[in-house]
Amino acid sequence: MTPTRLSTKEDYKTLLDKYDTWMFDCDGVLWNGDRLVDGAVKVLEILRTHKKSVLFVTNNATKARPSYKKKFDKLGVEAHVDEIFGSAYAAAVYISSVMKLPKDKKVYVVGMEGVEQELAAEGISYIGGTDPADQTLNSFSLSSFTRDPAVSVVLCGLDTAINYTKLAKAFQYLQDPSVTFLVTNDDSTYPSEGGLLPGAGAVSAPLKTASGREPLSIGKPASTMLDCIKAKHDFDPKRTIMVGDRLNTDILFGQNGGLSTLLVLTGESIQTRARITHVEDIEGPNASSIIPEYVTNSIGDLRVLA
Ligand SMILES: O=C(O)[C@H](O)[C@H](O)COP(=O)(O)O
Ligand SMILES: [Mg+2]
């Protein structure tokens, strides 16, 4: 299958008329770090003017929804908390509503405030995470460590302050097969302002290696993320389009959910030109098996609809 490359005003008008719900990935589509993609704000305004439902679906677990709302506000992007779906939120809902974690049980977190705040919002107890005791580069000694018997889940997300102590503690829990191993998402890289950085998948990889266990990943492309959205929003999959910069998360998520898919090529570093997705990934002999329905350079291209 060859993706339809969009370029004319008519192309974008056809999309506007065809889809009522627009699900947007964030990193690499709306922004890279705190730098907005040109035209993103204008296009979201156009969609809202045409009474389209706009949802934000991000695998980035470093922030909880209220913190994302602050980022949207700071960048001048209209967004409402109930339109924002992050993998930290999806993981917390999965633990509370699907696993139904008993109140006397806890989660050992490898991750940042986003995960902690979403767990707390779901009334789930946790340890680890940003606990100052774990923010150390001192060597880890088992003699000074006591397992907390209440821990029955290890949840790992992007942690830009990862260290050996956190990995060693999480690994102590993962050696118990009755402890569930979850990751918020498995993205290999993260498109920041200055370039590509190791993603959440690169943070959980040492735990997979050490434990020999394969975690359940909650974020895109998993359906757990779409289930979270369906619990809050009605939408017709046939009139819904997922816009993303990564094939094995965003586009596969859309395909798994029976949605249409639009790939943009803005998940990149201006400095190094390193990209999340290259044209060669969707066209030609080395194309991926995950091919989007549509492709355009940037979400800003839809500005012509103004
Ligand atoms: O490593 C990560 O967590 C991801 O690169 C990042 O979070 C992706 O976010 P998204 O593109 O889904 O907004
Ligand atoms: Mg992205």
TrEMBL record:
Q: Which cofactor does it need?
A: Mg(2+)
EC number(s) stated in the UniProt entry for this protein: 3.1.3.41
Q: Does the keyword Magnesium apply?
A: yes
Q: Which reaction does it catalyse?
A: 4-nitrophenyl phosphate + H2O = 4-nitrophenol + phosphate + H(+)
Record's Pfam families?
Hydrolase_6, Hydrolase_like
Alphabetically sorted, this entry's keywords are:
Hydrolase, Magnesium, Metal-binding
Q: Does this entry carry the keyword Magnesium?
A: yes
What does the UniProt cofactor note say?
Divalent metal ions. Mg(2+) is the most effective.
Record GO terms (molecular function): alkaline phosphatase activity; metal ion binding; phosphoglycolate phosphatase activity
Tell me the residue numbers annotated for binding Mg(2+).
Answer: D25, D27, D245
Which positions bind substrate? K220
Q: Which residues form the active site?
A: D25 (nucleophile), D27 (proton donor)
UniProt enzyme class: hydrolase
Q: A GO CC term?
A: cytoplasm
This chain belongs to the protein called: 4-nitrophenylphosphatase
According to its UniProt entry, this protein's organism is Heliocybe sulcata
**The organism's taxonomic lineage, starting at the top:** Eukaryota, Fungi, Dikarya, Basidiomycota, Agaricomycotina
